[in-house]
Amino acid sequence: MNMLAAEHIRSVVLAHQLASRRTVVEREDLIGSAVLVPIVYEHAEPDLLLTQRTDRVETHKGQIAFPGGMVDPGDCDRTHTALREAKEEIGLLPSAVELCGLLDDLATPTGFVITPVVGLLRERPRLQLNAHEVAEAFYVPLRFFCEPANAEREFRIAGGVPREIWVYRYNGRVIWGATAAVIRHLVELIMKPGPDLPEQNARLPHTPSDGRTP
Q1: Is-contact 49 41, C-beta < 8 A?
Q2: Three-class SS of residue 138?
Q3: What does the pLDDT read at residue 206?
Q4: Cα-flanking dihedrals φ and ψ of residue 35, to 5°?
Q5: What pLDDT digit, counting tens, does each position of 55-98 carry?
Q6: Of residues 111, 112, 114, 139, the one with CA closest to residue 125
Q7: Is the model more confident about 163 or about 152?
Q8: pLDDT confidence tier of residue 6, bands split at 50, 70 and 90
Q9: Cβ atoms of residues 25 and 211 within 8 Å
Q10: DSSP 3-state of 128
Q11: Which of 17, 44, 121, 171 reaches 20 to 30 Å from 213, CA-CA?
């Protein structure tokens, strides 16, 4: 089985959500947000599309991140948030994204709860970066993150507290914190054998904007 094939990734992410295995964080003291995890299949093997934030944004200045941001009152669910933010930040059209499902919610020391939304793209999109928020967008082979030797554990100060976190280093870039944690969870899912879905053509369940799955 090709663990990096679109069919496999689609099935394991969807099954994780449909089987109610997904961790949902419900805390009123955290700000709701969502990120898009774009997996791009232009080449023989997929790449992850990542961004580097500018020093002009309010939070996580200069860090490597997925496109995303805070939930707006007009967003119907976390998927809507992720797609809207991706369009605003890097000009990625929602119509270019095939949605797979949601990964585990992640509470951050900076006061956010992040819902990662996995999406597949069949080719590299033409991007238009928001110069205020995004310094650059770049691609990393997904296989790189699947190699155990490329994942490191480090202690860093986050939210004023020493924490053990995942860190990846690729071509001079350091990917850590929430972004690395989301990648680690994705890799753990796709490295498992393919699941048996309840229905061959199961639809993604609706996710209310408060982050609770039905």
Answers
A1: no
A2: strand
A3: 36
A4: -130, 150
A5: 766 655 568 999 999 999 999 999 999 999 999 999 999 999 99
A6: 139
A7: 152
A8: very high
A9: yes
A10: coil
A11: 121
Report the alpha-carbon distance of residue 66 to residue 77 in Å, rounded: 18
The CB-based long-range contact list for 121-125 (8 Å cut-off, 24+ gap) reads 121/38, 121/39, 121/40, 121/41, 121/42, 121/49, 121/96, 121/97, 122/41, 122/42, 122/98, 123/40, 123/41, 123/42, 124/40, 124/42, 125/40, 125/91, 125/92, 125/93, 125/96
DSSP 45: S
- Tell me how far apart the terminal alpha carbons of the chain are, to the nearest angstrom: 32
For the record, the structure tokens of 29 come out as 């003291």
Domains, in order of start, for the chain: 6-146+178-190 (3.90.79.10)
- Judged against a pLDDT cut of 60, whether residue 106 lies above it is answered with yes
pLDDT digits (tens, 9 = 90+) for 174-201: 999 899 999 999 999 999 765 544 443 3
d(CA 150, CA 140): 12
How much is the mean pLDDT over the chain?
A: 86
CB contact at 8 A, 58 and 112: no
Query: Cα–Cα distance between 139 and 51 in angstroms, integer?
Result: 9
Write the Ramachandran bin of 43: left for phi over 0, alpha for psi from -120 to 50, otherwise beta: beta
H/E segment holding residue 83: helix 78-90
